[in-house]
């Protein structure tokens, strides 16, 4: 959409009625909804990845192709806004580099260790976010955040059948999953620090570009003989394009806009809707198991994500 010569790109436009309803919420409420939405979108992350896997791509090149599509789609925005991005300087580049590194490490960890362990170790991220927010931003660690963190961890351990044993990193993939969560926590804290300095659309462009550079670098280093051909990628392109345009690009924008106005630890908890949506969608679309244990875990994780927003709403009332 173009207004006054400026290009705006983000989540899909809403109706006038929907816009009036959203404007009735505080900026914090809208930011929480944005993060919940972003987490839900990333919970569907596996669908186009599964399509690329079925097309025969090497596992390390899947993420590179995944990043390549939105990076190409957003090239016009890069050309229009390169002056703004350049003005962001080193601080901006460090922020988007951290975000790209987070997803690159996460994707690599899924290849090198069990998916369950990668997911659980990545979602220790809210702990790092809360500690970094305390150290850097001097934000309080409230009892309700501690309770939400406990609910989320119990939910994950229940859902993934890890019992009472805590996942301790044991191999390179585990450490990459842990590092991915830490780098995403750094990204959230830096976005909060530079709340008014970086436009979310610029962060979105940088996220995809750095994600492409880093994931392609890892793939070239570890699997140089498996560069995919266009004929391999072509069957998955329709689904990939639809997901990018309707979900991934808007979801990424939301995930980089909402954290500007929230405590980074709260952001980490809200993003855990990824686990909820991922588990339910995998059960519905891929026939993966979803029984009582998974249901209890989903309820606990969803409750942890919503605990602080509900408490905040009650306090305002």
Short description:
By secondary structure, the chain is mostly helical. It has helices spanning 16-23, 27-42, 46-54, 59-73, 75-87, 89-112, 115-122, 125-137, 143-159, 172-193, 200-222, 230-233, 237-257, 264-270, 273-286, 292-316; strands at residues 2-3, 6-7. α6 packs across α11.
* Physical arrangement of strands within the biggest beta sheet: 1-2
**Approximate strand percentage:** under 5%
Share of helical residues: over 70%
Tell me how many strands there are. Answer: 2
> What string gives the helices and strands in order?
EEHHHHHHHHHHHHHHHH
Which oligomerization state do the chains in this entry correspond to? single chain
Round the Cα radius of gyration to an integer and report it. 19 Å
Taking the sheet with the most strands, its summary is: 2 strands, antiparallel
Give an account of the 3D structure.
This is EamA-like transporter family protein. The protein has 317 residues and is mainly α. The chain has one domain. The protein is built from 16 helices and two strands. The chain has helices at residues 16-23, 27-42, 46-54, 59-73, 75-87, 89-112, 115-122, 125-137, 143-159, 172-193, 200-222, 230-233, 237-257, 264-270, 273-286, 292-316, and strands at 2-3, 6-7. The protein has a two-stranded antiparallel sheet. The protein is globular, with a radius of gyration of 19 Å.
């Amino acid at each position: 959409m173009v207004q006054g010569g400026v290009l705006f790109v983000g989540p899909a436009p809403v109706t006038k009625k929907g816009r009036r309803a959203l404007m009735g919420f505080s900026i914090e409420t809208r930011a929480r909804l944005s993060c919940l939405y972003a987490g839900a979108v990333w919970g569907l992350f596996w669908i186009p990845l599964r399509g690329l896997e079925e097309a025969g791509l090497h596992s390390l090149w899947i993420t590179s192709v995944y990043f390549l599509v939105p990076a190409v789609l957003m090239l016009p925005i890069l050309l229009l806004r390169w002056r703004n991005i350049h003005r962001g300087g080193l601080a901006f580049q460090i922020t988007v580099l951290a975000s790209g590194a987070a997803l690159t490490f996460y994707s690599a960890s899924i290849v090198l260790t069990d998916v369950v362990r990668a997911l659980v170790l990545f979602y220790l991220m809210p702990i790092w976010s809360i500690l970094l927010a305390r150290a850097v931003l001097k934000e309080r660690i409230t009892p309700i955040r501690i309770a939400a963190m406990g609910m989320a961890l119990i939910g994950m351990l229940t859902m993934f059948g890890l019992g009472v044993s805590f996942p301790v990193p044991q191999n390179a993939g585990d450490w990459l999953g842990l590092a991915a969560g830490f780098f995403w926590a750094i990204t959230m804290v830096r976005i909060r620090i530079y709340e008014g300095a970086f436009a979310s659309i610029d962060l979105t462009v940088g996220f995809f570009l750095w994600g492409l550079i880093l994931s392609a670098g890892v793939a070239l280093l570890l699997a140089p003989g498996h560069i995919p051909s266009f004929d391999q990628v072509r069957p998955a392109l329709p689904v990939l394009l639809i997901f990018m345009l309707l979900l991934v690009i808007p979801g990424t924008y939301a995930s980089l806009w909402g954290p500007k106005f929230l405590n980074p630890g709260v952001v980490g908890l809200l993003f855990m809707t990824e686990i909820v949506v991922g588990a339910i969608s995998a059960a519905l679309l891929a026939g993966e198991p979803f029984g009582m244990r998974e249901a209890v875990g989903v309820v606990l994780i969803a409750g942890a994500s919503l605990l602080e927003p509900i408490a905040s709403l009650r306090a305002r009332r």
